[in-house]
Predict the structure.
Amino acid sequence: MPYRVGVPGIDDRAHHRTAGVASTCRPSIYDCRQPPVALSTFVDAHLSRIRDARVMDAGAGAGPYVPVVAARAAELVAVDLATIRLSQIDATEAHQVCGDVQALPFRNGSFDVVMAMHMLYHVPDIAAAAREFRRVLRDGGVLYALTNSTSAQAEFAELIRRNGCDPSAGGDFGALRFSNENGVELLRAGFDHISVVELGPSRLVVTDPEQLVDEVERNRYLLEPGLRPGVAWRAFVHDVRVDAGRLIARDGDFRIGERHGLFTCW
Ligand SMILES: C[S@@+](CC[C@H](N)C(=O)[O-])C[C@H]1O[C@@H](n2cnc3c(N)ncnc32)[C@H](O)[C@@H]1O
């Protein structure tokens, strides 16, 4: 029987400013990946332990992995801070729990596998999340964590910089907080065994400037402290929108390079 658990007091409008939580249902820039990733191929090749397992998809968002994982796992629980995104998940495929990975509402040893796909860099205390993932995994259970290289997304960082914001001034924009390069050190808070595999390069080919604006808004909590003196948030967002629109009108799209890394921890 699927369950759905909300946390009283969690408000998407308040949280999208503080935790990378989306406030719109528009497709994100990550839906524009090329070559497109066949998630079933990726899951079978890299997340083999989910088969017949009790799995948590932590920071599941709108659940891009849910159909593929639900078809293979014994049970799937999708966890996210944002109810607006969780509500897009098919309740017949996954339980939905609104919660924070820094303090998970589950007993010790509840899961065989935890997936944390492109989410740990949004979490304020990454070491606390790693300890929580370890706690809710059974002995021998495994964490899969997907992220990006610090050298990725340089084009997006440049768009931000050019329009009045130092993307790293507010404390490590994007993958810089949890990256292929620093992830082992951060995950050591919870795990003794950690391996990382760098996956082939890919790129985001964005044709709608509003998707870039959405991504900027989603990262407001990281970017706003990096605004140049005298630049207001609204003016910065306006300038990003105009600049992105101009580039897309000129080139047909805006391309952002990626280099993903997958951590496996036990
Ligand atoms: C970039 S999205 C990734 C979504 C999905 N895993 C994917 O790979 O497409 C990051 C997600 O993490 C969620 N998130 C951020 N901080 C969180 C926290 N402390 N606890 C739970 N979820 C969190 C956000 O709401 C957002 O849905």
